[in-house]
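Run folding on both entries below.
>entry_1
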Amino acid sequence: MTVKPRPARRLSAPVRCLAVAAVLTLLGAAPAAAAERDPMALRVPSDKLQELRAVENPVPDTPEMVAEGEAVFRGVGSCNVCHGETGNGQGIGASGLDPSPRDFTNKRWQKARSDGELMYVLRHGSPGSAMITAVPGLISEEDGWKVIRYIRTFGR
């Protein structure tokens, strides 16, 4: 009788992030959290900035859409793992990340960045950071726009 090995299951990106942070923390190799290098630095190509600033969020800014965005942020999107329950970039998965995850409570950053820029980062990740590509692999584009509605509440 031949026994076939089971194919390896691949862990989702948020689970991998948590696992790496947990191992580093247990080994004492991770600082509590590194500071954001420059919260105002662009995370999109400069040649796309004007175009992205013109993009409007198609999801209405209603309490219902914000609540749905929060559910994705804390649920399937697992954004809170790194960005924290309060959006301050100090989530349990932030330990050892350099730079630290974006601090969504920074009012200056909130004012400077457009929703189109945030969607670009959700679609493409953020080079030089641990920010993964979330749309469309992890969450849908519509859910991404809802998450952006929720992220905006941290700056109010």
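>entry_2
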Amino acid sequence: MDLRQFRYFGQVARRENFRKASEDLRVAQSALTRQIQILEQELGFLLFDRVKRGVRLTAAGQRLLERSQHILGEVDRLKETLQIEAHVPSGPASLAAPPSVGRLLFSRLAQTFLKSYPKVQLSLLEGFTSSALGQLRRGELSLAIVTDPPLDPLIEYTHLFTESIYLVGRPDDPRVKKRSLEVKSLADLPLVMTSRHNRSRQLIESSAAREGIRLDIRLELESGDTLQQLLQSGRIYGLLPYSSIVEDAQSRRLGGAPIRGLAMKRYLAKSRSEANSIARETLEKTVIGEMRELAKRVGVRERG
């Protein structure tokens, strides 16, 4: 006894005619008749009375029809549910991003996934380029937002946007009121910077070295809150991507001027060896959409 026999039996019962049922089912009438006979033999009773112009259900056949239709309905509903769930994002997905980007992105991502993809176990982590790429290679992350990463055959990159590096200080400081600054104007300014492991710091120092200037780095600091307090004091300057200061600049808590020729490219990175999942695919599409919108919203220019 199998589902195919139940479907054949149901169609014969509806049509009350083997020939018409076989045409509907697109099977040979002899094959259909044989399947019904096998079903009757397995059950031990007749399902149809043969009448002049076709067949008619027996009392036992009527009871089987009711039960079999219920079973087939449950099977169809189960199949539909499984097909839907197979395309519903679920399971773990993780994203690492620099603190400056995470502060603007993570809350929006969390709200989107809580509302639209509640079956995804989302992990949002702060991390800089070198550590995030290492986690991707080890299979510890689904995705990472990285800055000007090195070429790597194991990693696939999608460009998100390019943003300028700003000299940041008190909003009333004449230097940060300028439309833009040259790299050489940074010489002798007291600076607070992130650690040497930070990709933005590496890019800034490389650019300064090409200009033949030495940066006066007085402090290394990773704490965003402490950094803001120091910059507001007017005793020191920072060199930061625009995403780090956009909210403070718009509220006039800090001021900033872009450094000409000094910019960084943000990429979305994923491992080529990691098996794709609907959860990762959904996170990837959502992150790309949010980052493109973020670039417009905070005034970061797309540069292709």
